[in-house]
Amino acid sequence: MPLNTQGRPTRMAENLSTGGYADTFSGSRGLDQSEPLIFERGRTDNTGVDLPEPKGIKTRLGGLDRTAAIGLPGLAEPEAMRHYVRLSRKNYAIDLGLYPLGSCTMKHNPRLNEKMARLPGLADIHPMQPQQTVEGAIELMGELAHWLMTLTNTPCVALSPKAGAHGELCGMMAIRAALDARGETKRRRVLVPESAHGTNPATAVQCGFTTDEIPADATGRVDLEALKAKLGDDVAGIMLTNPNTCGLFERDIKEIADLIHESGGYFYCDGANFNAIVGRVRPGDLGIDAMHINLHKTFSTPHGGGGPGSGPTVFSEALAPYAPVPRVEQTSEGWRLIEQEADADGEPFGRMTAFHGQMGMFSRALTYMLSHGSDGLKQASEDAVLNANYILARLKHVMTPAFDGTCMHEALFDDRFLKDTGVTTLDFAKAMIDEGYHPMTMYFPLVVHGAMLIEPTETESKSGLDRFCDVLEALAEAAKAGEADRFRSAPVHAPTKRLDETLAARNPVLRWTPPVATAAE
């Protein structure tokens, strides 16, 4: 047991009944304060502020005056503040620890980005303002567009899509518009690799296409021969992620693009994993016709919480005429926003959103680009790949990599190392919570049994990666040593213990119901 300089134990005595911690009367564990619901803490018959009833006030509510108590709990101001601070400490965040979610790129969000996004003139503008009052913001959008096109080697970008799936929709709508303009309305079949993100086939169907699945080969990449067998005069295109969802670079990407183009289709590239190749590979050089870029994944704008997101979509020369409005263009008189289809060159398929995009996301992404420079963006990609391969090398002796060889920005393991242990991928992930880590992506991609997809991103130090790998190594060895009960009961140290996720998703409890008083009470 570790000791401090006075010889006292630095940990509580082990107590198996509480998962390794001694019981406490308060329900708290040191600075980890127990926190019930605000309804359980407060009372609905009082308030935190004592105000006298107003006198001589004539109501103007037209008979809609409240006749019963509002039913919200009343707390003193310090109590209310403490409640929400305590809740905030229960959230896992990139500022708290390593976030290993694969295919999500949970990057550090530099505070410089936040400072720039809050600058007066950027943070407080309104989309209905006249263009002449927001010329700086339009120029910022134009500058961001320039660098997105430069990094991808494409001639056109639509900034308005609000997220990755929205960017996919933008790209596929442009492909459909191009096919319709060619009079090829029978091209409605889209090829989709079996490891694709679920949004890919969903987006294709939303645009009126049918999908045809392409299997992977033994290396986890698109089976080229299977792809060739699927080609035909009804193929509209392919939706392919590169690097793919298994964390592997599609080595045949150029040949795939050539095959699709020769058959008369278009190449949509899912840009979710662009973080692995920025500054190293320009997707336009690989033959892509459209690709969305997740600003929250690749350029460090905040991720999660339901938004706001941003998924700009770049286009090749073949699809550029069909890109939607609004568009940002630089003229002899400066930057301007083209908002009407009649004012745009080409044949825009229409408008995707009411306004122009997410200004805060644009500010943050451009700040990230300019603060890194071209060499810094390239190094970030290289470091992301290095970190993932370091994790792969550190853990492959105790966990089982899904595929042989090196990976790109994320390391993928399957559950073979847990065979005959009685421990599942879910059990392993729950045990990670007890160790203070958010679990990796589980059971995805679906083509890998019991998948565990880990993406460390470029922002993690070697010491941080070593600590994470030490924990996973210890857990893997514990599972093989027959400590299955430890995993089945996990997490025991989290505020909420093991849940039935399926039942919770299908029957969520969204309303607090006060307990019913018994006769004895």
From TrEMBL:
The Aminotransferase class V domain, residue ranges: 186-304
Taxonomy of the source species: Bacteria, Pseudomonadati, Pseudomonadota, Alphaproteobacteria, Maricaulales
The species this protein was found in: Hyphobacterium vulgare
Protein name per UniProt: glycine dehydrogenase (aminomethyl-transferring)
Role this protein plays: The glycine cleavage system catalyzes the degradation of glycine. The P protein binds the alpha-amino group of glycine through its pyridoxal phosphate cofactor; CO(2) is released and the remaining methylamine moiety is then transferred to the lipoamide cofactor of the H protein.
EC identifiers of the protein: 1.4.4.2
Entry annotated with the keyword Oxidoreductase: yes
InterPro entries: Aminotrans_V_dom, GDC-P_C, GDC_P, PyrdxlP-dep_Trfase, PyrdxlP-dep_Trfase_major, PyrdxlP-dep_Trfase_small
Stretches the record annotates as Disordered: 1-29
Keywords, in A-Z order: Oxidoreductase, Pyridoxal phosphate
Catalytic reaction annotation: N(6)-[(R)-lipoyl]-L-lysyl-[glycine-cleavage complex H protein] + glycine + H(+) = N(6)-[(R)-S(8)-aminomethyldihydrolipoyl]-L-lysyl-[glycine-cleavage complex H protein] + CO2
The Glycine dehydrogenase C-terminal domain, residue ranges: 380-483
A GO MF label: glycine dehydrogenase (decarboxylating) activity
Enzyme class name: oxidoreductase
